[in-house]
Design brief:
5-stranded mixed sheet; mainly alpha
């Protein structure tokens, strides 16, 4: 045989040119015209694999050479060998299967009927009919399984041969999937016949014959859209003829059903076919393997969850007694199509959505054909949801197969014609990719190959049989990514665009739903008041203005994002309010249209927190920040102070100036909350930013009030505000008070009494003006309460003291609890020089010495009294975020307890920050790294939850939410996935339980 040129091999698609030349010169392939076989190899997805398998096949079965010598049959076989190494191996080990590929397949796919497939499977095991009308195999055990599996693989070989020989594989894909499902049903019919024969050896054959069994196909098998390799989901139902007790019939049926699955699954000379999965049965793995029809009905009517009816949408009798199977189908059908009226349907739909991405490795997400964004599950979710919502009143769309359902939905007016065509094309393309990838090695996978060589093979495999148009991995990946984007956008368009029923600019092809149908869609997605939602949609999209046109573009996407939040109704209402405030501006809707992050952030905020919705409604221009991470960055303290100084400079009326300063705080409060909601800030950064905002406001109000008093009484004093508590540690949340001390010093030449009186007037007014209602009011403001209870002598002491008075007090009367409170003192507002002098004054008080034994006992007693007296009556100490076991109080008291003991020796501990101190304590090995980490986890989580509660509800709370809805809202703000509220609760209780055990050992000295 003359040697084939390298260029010919390269043009045919070979990668290993030298190996290919060697194989073509082999003795086994010598009778074949090398030019012919190379030209046919160009049709093989993987010519290297095809040539290797051809060589091995002819070596093992020399008669196969005749197939390769015929130009037509050669092309069909080469294409098969280049597509599936698994089927090539089957041909090598099963020579009689060569008859299947001896004739070239037709370019027009010819589908085998279910009846033909069942006949061939039963014939392979020489099954015969019993008196009761049941098939029973003449072969059992290993031989029966071997015969059945070989027959199945011959049928699979025939199907793959015809599939790969078709001119348009994407068009015929539903026919291929239907035949695969029919093959699975036929294999189960054969396995059932083997199982009956085996049961006849364990029980009286007459009793076995009296037992009726029907196998119900679920999922893709039930819908006749199976993959080449897939689990086959089934449900077993049994009945019995007269003459057998129910318990015996049930026992026999259980044995038969178990043996049916074993016939297809247990290891053997011919490998298992696929897994038979019966876990969708009533009660799942814990339920009986098979039940009677009446038992199934009782379960579904009384105990079934909504998701079980959605699974039953595709239920179909695929093997066994057909009458019993049809009775089962008739029994479940009304329940399936009325499931949208059941309690919990919305939650079930949301669970369907979550299952799209469940259990996917992050590394696999970009490569997922089935479960990733824009994958097969997105198509199936959309179609099934539309069927469940509208199928209750429209029998025409009650079809299980996805491609048929798409066209039925279009014919009935639920999907536009063009969208249906695009959806159908996208689905077929994705399924074709899945089929070709699985066919290669007959392995269950849904991942796009990551290696370029494998992508090249896949790109060649999806071409039609006669298609030799050049292709490449780049073209394949580009088409796949375009398809994914198409599927994602089609979900939004198909499901939401028809809701815009009031639009006057919809094209003739756009769907116009009835009011009832539109409301049903909204209800299915979790909108509790669909009528109100429709009113909002109509108000937003009505008319012919540019604003209405933009709203019609945006709403299909936004409605979906709102539906993912805790309160979709509030999200839509909030968007309407914001749109009415800003809709006439040139930038708002344009930003949402052009900036995906801004639109998604806004939707997330509006549907998860009414409080921020109110803030945005009153600060609508802040919506512009959502389009830019830089705009959401918190303002620096210097910038805030400068803004307030500008306000004071240009505003002569004190009340007006204070109002504007408080409005700056509200605006910056909103900025921090928006950045927090967008995931741009950590818990620590939120606390620092909010502390800066509070400090700037107090500084501005102090300046206004002091200036006003000085105009009346002259300049008598300078005043400083010292932050204490969590404010001192820059560790506050959205609803935190400002714990402070006030200190004053007379200016040169002023009398001490006059200075004290001026400071007292100003400070008293400051406490009032930071929180009292103003005219006009500041809507949605979170007022700042200034709390000076940590001053010397507590509430009984004077509100403000001179720095000399503080020195006298701390040198003579300071108590250990005051030394503890001073651990977090820092300059906050007012005169900076005085503040620094005050910090220098208290340095020996808080860091000058350690704790004596009596002081340690006193601190422990005070903490125990706080736990017993300050916890609100009836409050669960396990759920109180501030004073509960292992919560903020425990962590902060423990840290301050150690600072009091060791900060005099270790400057690293001289910090007002709880978390920084924890870190240093671990570095100094005063506590273990693990203890420090667990305490920090509990502290951060409690802080995060406290902030989340005021953000989501607008109310300050120190108690872990008790209602599931409130817990869900808090969990979303804390970064948990939808419907993980219970997980947040468990995480908090676990974290605080660990923190409390550490606290009791390190603070109280309890034994671990």
């Amino acid at each position: 045989m003359p040697e084939v040129s390298s260029r010919s091999l390269i043009n045919a698609g070979f990668s290993d040119i030298e190996r290919a030349k060697k194989f073509l010169q082999s003795e086994e392939l010598a009778p074949i015209d090398s030019t012919l076989i190379v030209s046919k190899m160009a049709h093989a997805p993987d010519p290297d694999q095809a040539l290797l398998l051809a060589l091995r096949l002819v070596d093992r079965h020399p008669e196969a050479i005749k197939i390769f010598m015929d130009p037509q049959s050669c092309q069909g076989l080469v294409r098969l060998l280049g597509s599936s190494s698994a089927l090539g191996e089957f041909l090598i080990r099963c020579p009689e299967a060569l008859e299947t590929v001896r004739t070239a397949p037709s370019t027009e796919f010819v589908q085998e009927t279910s009846k033909q497939l069942v006949h061939s499977m039963l014939e392979s095991i020489e099954a015969t009919r019993t008196q009761g009308g049941h098939w029973v195999s003449s072969h059992i055990g290993v031989e029966g399984r071997q015969r059945l599996r070989t027959s199945y693989r011959k049928a699979l070989l025939s199907l793959a041969h015809r599939d790969l020989g078709a001119s348009n594989p994407q068009r015929i894909l539903p026919n291929v999937a239907a035949e695969l499902a029919d093959m699975a049903g036929a294999a189960l019919e054969g396995a059932l016949a083997i199982a009956r024969a085996e049961a006849g050896e364990q029980y009286d054959p007459n009793d076995v014959d009296r037992v009726k069994i029907s196998i119900i196909g679920m999922g893709k098998c039930g819908a006749r859209e199976l993959n080449y390799i897939s689990d086959v989901d089934v449900i077993y139902v049994h009945g019995s003829a007269p003459g057998i007790e129910e318990d015996l019939a049930s026992a026999i049926a259980t044995v038969i059903c178990g043996n049916t699955a074993r016939a297809l699954m247990v290891p053997g000379p011919e490998p298992m076919l696929w897994e038979v999965d019966a876990n969708l049965r009533p009660e799942g793995k814990d339920g009986a393997l098979t039940r009677t029809l009446s038992s199934h009905e009782a379960y579904y009517r009384r105990w079934a969850h909504s998701w079980e009816f959605q699974a039953l949408l595709k239920a179909r009798c695929i093997a066994g007694d057909p009458d019993l199977g049809r009775s089962y189908e008739r029994m479940v059908s009304p329940m399936v199509w009325s499931s949208s009226e059941r309690d919990g349907f919305v939650e079930s739909v949301q669970a369907m959505r979550r299952r799209v991405s469940d259990n996917i490795s992050k590394d696999d997400v970009p490569w997922q054909i089935k479960l990733g964004p824009g994958g097969l599950r997105d198509v199936e979710f959309t179609v099934q949801l539309l069927q469940l919502v509208h199928g209750r009143v429209d029998q025409d769309i009650q079809v299980p197969t996805t491609t048929l359902a798409i066209h039925a939905l279009s014919d009935s007016g639920y999907i536009g014609r063009e969208d249906a065509t695009n959806f159908d094309d996208s689905y077929r393309f994705l399924r074709l990719l899945e089929h070709r990838i699985q066919l290669s090695q007959l392995r269950r996978t849904h991942l796009m190959p990551r290696v370029e060589a494998a992508q090249r093979v896949l790109a060649r495999s999806i071409r039609g049989a006669a298609d030799l148009q050049p292709t490449s991995p780049e073209k394949l990946m580009r088409r796949w990514n375009e398809t994914k984007r198409m599927v994602r956008s089609l979900h939004e368009r198909i499901f939401y665009r028809p809701l815009l029923v009031s639009s006057s600019n919809l094209s003739a092809d756009d769907v116009r739903l009835t009011a009832e149908s539109a409301q049903a869609r909204l209800r299915a997605l979790g909108y509790l008041d669909p009528k109100a939602a429709m009113r909002h949609i109509e108000a937003l999209t009505g008319g012919v203005s540019r604003r209405s046109s933009l709203q019609r573009q945006l709403l299909p996407v936004l409605l979906d994002w709102f539906a993912r939040g805790v309160d979709p109704d509030a999200g839509l209402l909030g968007f309407r309010r914001l749109s009415e405030s800003l809709g006439k501006t040139h930038w708002f809707l344009g930003m949402l249209r052009d900036t995906n992050a801004a639109a998604e952030r806004l939707s997330h905020l509006l549907s998860n927190t009414r409080f921020l919705t109110d803030l945005l409604a009153n600060e609508p221009a802040a919506a512009a920040w959502l389009g830019s991470d830089a705009s959401l960055a918190p303002q620096s303290l210097e910038s805030l102070l400068q803004q307030n100084q500008s306000i004071i400079h240009r505003t002569k009326q004190p009340e007006s100036a204070i109002r504007m300063i408080r409005m700056v705080r509200r605006r910056e409060f909103l900025r921090v909350a928006l950045a927090d909601g967008a995931g741009l800030l950590t818990v620590d950064e939120v606390g620092q930013a909010l502390s800066n905002i509070d400090g700037a406001m107090i500084d501005g109000v102090l300046k206004v009030l002091l200036s006003a008093d000085q105009e009346k009484h002259g300049q008598q004093a300078v005043i400083s505000v010292i932050a204490m508590g969590r404010q001192g540690g820059r560790e506050i949340g959205y609803g935190s008070d400002a714990d402070v001390l006030f200190v004053q010093r007379a200016v040169p030449g002023a009398q001490a009494q006059a200075a004290q009186e001026q400071a007292l007037r100003v400070v008293t007014d400051l406490v009032s003006w930071t929180s009292k209602p103003l005219k006009p009011a500041i809507p949605a403001e979170v007022k700042l309460k200034v709390d000076s209870d940590l001053r010397p002598e507590g509430r009984q002491g004077i509100l403000v003291r001179s720095i000399d008075a503080y020195e006298t007090y701390y040198s003579r009367w300071v108590e250990v609890w005051e030394r503890q409170a001073l651990q977090r003192a820092r300059p906050f507002a007012g005169d900076a020089t005085l503040a620094e002098d005050f910090i220098a004054l208290i340095k020996p008080v808080r860091y000058g010495k350690g704790l004596e034994e009596s002081e340690i006992r006193d601190i422990r007693k005070i903490k125990a009294r706080v736990e017993s007296e300050r916890l609100p009556r009836g409050a669960d100490p396990n759920r109180h975020l501030k004073l509960g076991r292992g919560s903020l109080s425990d962590v902060e008291w423990l840290v301050q307890f150690y600072q009091l003991q060791y900060a005099w020796r270790h400057e690293e501990l001289r910090t007002t920050s709880t978390l920084c101190a924890l870190e240093e304590l671990a570095k100094l090995e005063l506590i273990s790294d693990d203890d420090a980490q667990q305490l920090a986890v509990a502290w951060r989580l409690a802080t995060r939850i406290r902030s989340a509660e005021i953000i989501t509800s607008g109310r300050s709370s120190d108690v872990l939410p008790s209602s599931s809805r409130d817990m869900e809202a808090v969990a979303r703000w804390c970064g948990y996935e939808p419907h993980f509220g219970a997980e947040l609760e468990e995480d908090y209780l676990r974290a605080t339980r660990h923190a409390r055990s550490i606290f009791e050992v390190l603070f109280y000295g309890f034994e671990d």
